[in-house]
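input
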Amino acid sequence: MTFILIPVLLSQNQRNMQLAAAGLLLLFNTFFGLAWVGGPFLYSAEIAQLRSRAQINGVATAANWYFCFVVVVTIPPSFANIGWKAYIIYAVLNASFIPIIYFFLVETKGRNLEELDVIFAAPGGPVKNEKRMPHNMSIAEGRRILGLDDVEVEEQSEGDLKS
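output
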């Protein structure tokens, strides 16, 4: 919403509108920092299988920093060439993430890492698997529900997870 309101305010070319737009940008940065900055670091570690968690987290971290770099490099020329209209591009990009997040990211709330291993190992989409598998069940029961009785999923004991 802030990236929709900011170009509207800046298009008026009035000092009080510019100050309001700056306040909205500060509001966006505050909530982005509180809600989304940790996402690439935390989510990738939660959904990755135990044997590849470090590598996947490394790729997610590298991708996060790469896209931050792309944004930082493209902002000066975009503001130099199209001014306040650059915010419209960011509004469209941010809005495009809503269906992607809703339909393709697995809800990990209330799931332990072993349950997520089972969810991602099962055939079919992990989002559908997560919805089918009840919370707080044994790994063996989750494997049975998702049809993984004969598929090997890397499991580790409690001692391995704490070390």
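quick obs: The two ends are 44 Å apart (CA to CA).
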